[in-house]
């Protein structure tokens, strides 16, 4: 069973970083396959807290080779500041591999992200402003810059020219901004070439050879299922495929190689940025979830929108990802509520709907249908096994499992590596 995918089952920030780090000690490779430094993955090891954006969370496990796959978009300035931040804290990052086919987030893509959001005004997506969407747009428009382009100055110059041709028209005529000079961008990008060189590799070959040798490869998703460009709440999504299929295209590994797909699922729901969110709370319960759960963005520092658990979304995540397991996180945050509402279906135009509606308009006015589950007041953060959980916490987990369509194989009861209850082994 060598290849596992670990991904967000909701709108991101489910605790993927912690889960990846937990498995990192037993896997040979951890691979990011999509997204970029829009991600914010928190890993707590002992009394040390790490916030990772672009680097795979496996970078904190000494035996593990971290890989940035072809499907990722790389901002070199962020990459180097993240690497040096880790090096200063004594983390060895020398094993990192980066695909030569990964696309580069150029400075103009960051500018375009910010100006287009401003231009959208009230209709903005609430992006992280890191240039993610424009970089993927360039990739699809075939005017993107790839890591390998940094090693051929003439090609790089032609490509930057092609990309800026249209963008400068747009920036100056539509957005009233100054044009961006080709040579300045080329110079900046070339400045990264030598520093990047030791990491650049044919990661597709490396990963497939590793799988042939029965090495264990873990694919770590950024964002979450409902932020997927195809399967999420479009247009309020990110511009890549965090869903399981994205691991194949974003790393160059065939679907037949993937044996397990683990959905990271928060015991309640959060979302950052704009877009529909049926179980969102605007009362003191929402405020309490935010406070107790520390729900503040790792990347942008924005408060996360909070709401109750939504089983319709969990079932949807099971379906579109072919989930084999769930890792339920932050169960400890729910301690202290007398009763915990769980959304089991929606009401749309007076009708009960059990599955996520494919129509965006329907989803926008879906009202949650709640079932009340009894809460618990005991501290669960020290629990090491399922049987140590209070009866009502056990029942909450079992109810979620039943509603969500895949077994819950691990439960997070705190942010630390060891604050986890393992039910079925992932490896
Ligand atoms: P990611 O983007 O999916 O990696 O998640 P984030 O790191 O953005 O947000 C998850 C937050 O929850 C982080 O602050 C984690 O340290 C924290 N966390 C993860 N699992 C648990 C858990 O089981 N309990 C608690 N209390 N915190 C957790
Ligand atoms: P992790 O990996 C939560 C959201 C943004 C915005 C939308 C598009 O930490 O779970 P983008 O900058 O990607 O074009 O923004 O997606 N978003 C995230 N929300 N967690 C993330 O990553 C996110 N990455 C992007 O807030 O709504
Ligand atoms: Mg996050």
From TrEMBL:
Coiled coil: none annotated. Binds 1 Mg(2+) ion per subunit. The active site is at 13 (proton acceptor), 41 (proton donor), 139. One of its GO terms (biological process) is 'de novo' AMP biosynthetic process. It catalyses: IMP + L-aspartate + GTP = N(6)-(1,2-dicarboxyethyl)-AMP + GDP + phosphate + 2 H(+). Pathway: Purine metabolism; AMP biosynthesis via de novo pathway; AMP from IMP: step 1/2. Keywords: Cytoplasm, GTP-binding, Ligase, Magnesium, Metal-binding, Nucleotide-binding, Purine biosynthesis. InterPro entries: Adenylosuccin_syn_GTP-bd, Adenylosuccin_syn_Lys_AS, Adenylosuccinate_synth_dom1, Adenylosuccinate_synth_dom2, Adenylosuccinate_synth_dom3, Adenylosuccinate_synthetase, P-loop_NTPase. Its EC number is 6.3.4.4. Its cofactor is Mg(2+). The keyword Ligase applies. GO terms for molecular function: adenylosuccinate synthase activity; GTP binding; magnesium ion binding. It is found in: Cytoplasm. It is an enzyme of class 6 (ligase). Substrate binds at residues 298-304. Mg(2+) binds at residues 13, 40. SMART domains: Adenylsucc_synt. GTP binds at residues 12-18, 40-42, 304, 330-332, 412-414. GO terms for cellular component: cytoplasm. IMP binds at residues 13-16, 38-41, 128, 142, 223, 238, 302. Its main location: cytoplasm. NCBIfam families: PRK01117.1 (NF002223), purA (TIGR00184). Belongs to the adenylosuccinate synthetase family. Plays an important role in the de novo pathway of purine nucleotide biosynthesis. Catalyzes the first committed step in the biosynthesis of AMP from IMP. Homodimer. This is Adenylosuccinate synthetase. It comes from Streptomyces rochei (Streptomyces parvullus). The gene is purA.
